[in-house]
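>> received
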Amino acid sequence: MVSSIGLTKVTGGDVGIWPAASITGFPPGTTTGAFHAGDAVAMAAQGDLTTAYNNAAAAPGGAILPADIGGLTLAPGVYKTTSSQPSLGITGNLTLSGAANGVWIFQVVSTLTTAAGNSQVIMAGGGQSKNVFWQIGSSATLGTNTTFSGNIMALAS
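>> returned
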């Protein structure tokens, strides 16, 4: 299931789910793209997602992250959580600063959660959100008023 609570706004992309077919909370949430629930487009996208997820998971190296990365500025690179600290939070602003061709890969063992109340992932220095990949082992929860950059690839939801 894909669900939205409140005035979620998805820009620059579609919302889809496969093999399930339940998307709820739109409206009041909005998207500039299309909805694909259990259709052929969602099925193809799921295959592409699996490939991208596996590629991100296999990226070598990686700096170990603290439990919450709000307030940090990170250069392009591979970043990860560990089995002893598997979840990742963002409270406040996370700045990703690098050139337009910089790539950020976040390997999160379990969950990603942003705090409600204006948490943000901010691109700086020419960095582009299309080059940010969040490989999440379980699920991602974006708190109310979160502004998020990047591609969330969550294994469970």
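>> Helices lie at 40-57.
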